[in-house]
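User: I'm preparing a small set of examples for a lab meeting where we compare how different chains pack in three dimensions. I only have the primary sequence for this one, and I'd like the structure in token form so I can line it up with the others. Please keep the answer compact; I'll paste it straight into my notes.
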Amino acid sequence: MLYRIREARQYVQVPELKLAMQSSADWFQRYRFCQPLGQGGMGVIYLAEDKSQDNLQCVVKQLISKPSNPDEQFEAERLFKREVDILRQLDHSGIVRFSDFHVTDDGKYFLVMDYVPGKNLDSIVQNYGPFGSEATVEIGIQCCEVLEYLHERDYPIIYRDLKPSNLMLTPEGQIVFIDFGIARMFMPKQAATRVVTAGYSPPEQYFGRPETRSDLYALGATLGHLCTGVRPKPLTVSAPGITHPDVIPELDDLIRRLTAHNPEDRPFSAREIRYELYKIYHSIHPDFEIPEEAVTATQATVAPAKPLKNDGPPTNPNLRSGLHSDSSKRPPNWLDREQPKEEDLQKVTRKDAERFDPASMGRKTSERLSRPDARDSNYRKRTQQQQQPVSFWDKLKQFFNR
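Assistant: Understood. Below is the structure token output for the 402-residue chain.
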């Protein structure tokens, strides 16, 4: 679950986007909306076709409007604009490509990206079980290549939301990062909006102080999830080898160090992790030749390389045998796109109608007033006292009070 903690609005600067002069009528004429693919806390994702490019498939993300809560709407628009601003700067085979952006006259925001075939890693684990150690190492190498590209730029970008559901696996075995809604430029002396995902976010991110090593913590939690099929516990060091002895010991040790509470105890950079993953892969496949840069570099002195402007570090297509091996054990059509269920379509339509239906808003108000805590101010306090304390926040408090 994604937690957002709002901060004062006066400290927020909304990015200014230069939009191409195009009427909404022309813009909607260009794209044909085919079907909804999903809905999250910030937007609805649609599969669409670009008529100007021979009906090329694309993905359109629409920001959900929240007119009843101006503060949340303001923050959502700010993050949405920042996602556009970041995506338009990036060019990497492991990052979904930005193609268009539009704001209607009545303030509706739309972002157009390339359609990425395949499925996200979270759904794959849910439906087909965990990945093997070999495939997990291959996924980690590809993730490190993307994180290097983001972290080693002139102005580093912190992804802040690395988790299996934000990583797509294509039929060719390529990993693609698809959601940059909360990514931001790294500014060491500036506090960030505190946006966290329980289980994948490190302690410092809860207090608005993320850094590049925060993404490395999320990478470790993600790798631990992939090789065990078990979601990581919040603010807990991942140790997949305890419950799954088949996990390679070197991979288990790396995941433990990546999910250390103190950033200083984690590996220094994504590049250093990639070098270590090469060595683990070599232990699986002795015929694999470790790149010379990984052989000569030491873990303590891995210097950041000069950022690559175009496509980032080259992805080795040969490092996908584990992914292909795991895929061969699944049904032939396991990567086919699932058709949306009729009840899901009706659910989205009903939500959209209720959002602007005054009668529905009145009904919700009456339902809220009928709850026991509406008129009894001590009801919620008594109920909370009867409940057991939440272990997640207790752990957080204990960790920072040590």
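A couple of notes for your slides: The longest strand covers residues 31-39. The longest helix spans residues 133-151.

User: Perfect, thanks.
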